[in-house]
Each structure stands twice: as C-alpha cells, then as structure tokens.
Amino acid sequence: MKDFMKKALTRTVTVKGSRGRSQQVEVPPNQKLLYGIYFAIASLVCLTILEATYIVILRSFSSEIFAAITLIVGTIVGAFFGQKA
Predict the structure, then answer these.
(1) Where are the alpha helices (DSSP H) in the chain?
(2) What single DSSP character describes residue 66?
C-alpha cells in the first residue's frame, strides 16, 4: 500500500531545460504527508467500525461519528487534490 499511496500522491512537473527543451520531472510527496494520509485512513477505518458497532448495539445512528467520518474523508480527498494541483 505504501507504493500505491506514494505513486498516487506523486506530482509531475514540466521543467524547461537547456536549449528550450522541456522535461517532465516527478516530485515525490513529503514523508509527513504520507504519514498523515496513513493515519487518516486508519482513523477512517476505526470510526467506520465504531459507527457500525454503534448501529448494531444501540440500534440508532450517531450523527457525531458520521460527521467525523465525513471530515476525515474530506481531508483525504483534499490532500489528494491539493497535492495534484
């Protein structure tokens, strides 16, 4: 999964070289960004399990847990779009 995440967050930049030629250079993501994404995915999995357990045991829906899940999904998607821009 590490290589998939690193490849998905790698940015391609076009750089003009000598003699007017342009090259595409791949810029790897920051290690802190990768660790943040891994932590967000782990948190998302844990919150999803917590929400499912909450629904099964208490037979009701927790809007607070769902709001946290929505926040984490937005953070992950924002990180992907922000890194690619």
Answers:
(1) 2-9, 31-58, 63-84
(2) H
pLDDT digits (tens, 9 = 90+) for 6-43: 888 898 888 887 787 888 889 999 999 999 999 999 99
Both tokens assigned to 27: 């810029």
Side chain identity, residue 67: A
* Residue with tokens 């919150």, as numbered in its chain: 47
CB 24 within 8 A of CB 13: yes
Mean pLDDT across the chain: 91
Residues pairing with 26 in the sheet: 12
Q: Which residues contact 50 (CB under 8 A, 6 or more apart)?
A: 65
